[in-house]
Specification:
It contains 9 helices and 14 strands. The strands form 6 sheets. The protein has a 3-stranded parallel beta sheet, with helices on one face. A 3-stranded antiparallel beta sheet has the order 4-7-10. Helix 6 packs across helix 7. Bound molecules: glutamic acid (GLU).
C-alpha cells in the first residue's frame, strides 16, 4: 500500500437536498482514496448558497454518511459561518487589482456575451470601470492576469489526464461575490481547501471545468494547489447527471450494504459478492485495501 506523509482529503456536499447516488460516489471515492493513503478525511458543508439550501438537508446528509460508516476525522465545517474568511480573500484580490465591481445585469450579459464552456463569457464591460450612472452589484475576477503557460491554466488530473483551459476566452471574468451579497462557490472552495490544509481533492467530473478557476484563484491568493482527481459522474439513460433536477431518488440509508456494493461496482472496484453478507465496515475495510481508482482512467460519465 502506498504511504504518503501527508494526505488530507475531503467531501464537500451542498445541502440542497438529500444525498443521491452520484454524491455518494464522490463521498466514498474521496474517503477510500484518503484512507488508502493513510490520510485524513474531512466533511465540509457547502451551505454558502443559502437560497438553494434546504432546511434539515445538512443533518440528513451527515446521518446518511454515518449509516455508510463515513465519519469525518474532525468536526464538520459550515461555509455559512465563514463569511469573514471569504471577505478577507476578496479584500486581497481587490488590493491586488485582480477583482473589480460589476454593475451588469444577467440580461445585459446574456444579450452581448459569446457562449463559453459554461454559458455566457462576460464581455468585460466593467473591467475598466463601471459605466456612469451604474452601481457595482457583484465582484468579478479579471482572467487576464499573467499566468504561466500563456494565458491557459494547465494541470494533471489523476484520472482525466492533462487538462488545459483558456480562462479568458472559455470562461471569462467570473463572479467571486454575487449581486445578492453571497460569496461564490469558486472563491469559498479555494479559501476552505487551503484553510483545511487539503492536499487531495477527489470529486465528480461535473466540477472539472471549475478546477482551472480554482487553480487560478490559488495563484492570485498565494495558496497551495492540491492534487485533483475527478471521478466519473453517474448518469441516467438520457446521459443526464443524477441530481435533484433530474429527479434522482435519494440514497436509502436503510440498506447501506447493498447500496455500497453498487457504489463500488460503479467505480469498477470488483467487490467480491460474499461481502454482501457482511456489514458496512467490513466492506469499507476491503475497499480501502483494494482501492484501484486507475480502473476509472479517462471516464467522465458512467450510467448508474
Ligand atoms: N459542493 C459542491 C457540490 O456539491 C462540491 C464542491 C467540491 O467538491 O469542490 O457539487
Amino acid at each position: 500500500m502506498p504511504s504518503s506523509p501527508i494526505y488530507r482529503g475531503r467531501f464537500a456536499p451542498s445541502p440542497t437536498g438529500p444525498l443521491h447516488f452520484g454524491s455518494l460516489v464522490a463521498a466514498v471515492g474521496s474517503y477510500l482514496d484518503a484512507k488508502h493513503h493513510h490520510g485524513t478525511w474531512l466533511v465540509r458543508m457547502e451551505d454558502i448558497d443559502t437560497p438553494r439550501c434546504v432546511p434539515g438537508a445538512a443533518d440528513d446528509i451527515l446521518r446518511t454518511l454515518a449509516a455508510f460508516g463515513l465519519h469525518g476525522d474532525a468536526p464538520v465545517i459550515y461555509q455559512s459561518r465563514r463569511a469573514a474568511a471569504y471577505e478577507q480573500a476578496l479584500h486581497t484580490l481587490q488590493a491586488n487589482g485582480a477583482a473589480y465591481p460589476c454593475g451588469c445585469t444577467r440580461k445585459e450579459i446574456s444579450d452581448s456575451a459569446l457562449l463559453g464552456i459554461e454559458g455566457a463569457v462576460y464581455p468585460g464591460t466593467c473591467r475598466h470601470g463601471i459605466p456612469a450612472g451604474r452601481e457595482g452589484r457583484a465582484w468579478r475576477v479579471r482572467t487576464d492576469r499573467t499566468l504561466p503557460c500563456r494565458g491557459s491554466v494547465k494541470f494533471n488530473d489523476a484520472l482525466q489526464g492533462r487538462i488545459t483551459q483558456h480562462l479568458e476566452s472559455e470562461i471569462g471574468d467570473f463572479v467571486v461575490k454575487r449581486a445578492d451579497g453571497l460569496f461564490a462557490y469558486q472563491l469559498a472552495v479555494v479559501v476552505d481547501d487551503a484553510h483545511q490544509g487539503i492536499t487531495h481533492v477527489v470529486r465528480g467530473a461535473d466540477l472539472l471545468a471549475s478546477t482551472p478557476r480554482q487553480i487560478y484563484l490559488q495563484g492570485l491568493l498565494d495558496l497551495p494547489m492540491p492534487h485533483y482527481m475527478h471521478l466519473p459522474v453517474a448518469v441516467n439513460e438520457a446521459g443526464e447527471k443524477l441530481s435533484k433536477q433530474t429527479l434522482a431518488s435519494p440514497v436509502a440509508a436503510t440498506q447501506p450494504v447493498k447500496t455500497l456494493l453498487r457504489v463500488l461496482e460503479f467505480m469498477k472496484q470488483e467487490p467480491p459478492l460474499e461481502l454482501a453478507g457482511g456489514d458496512v465496515q467490513a466492506m469499507l475495510d476491503w475497499a480501502v485495501k483494494n482501492w484501484h481508482p486507475e480502473r476509472l482512467n479517462g471516464m467522465r460519465t458512467i450510467p448508474a
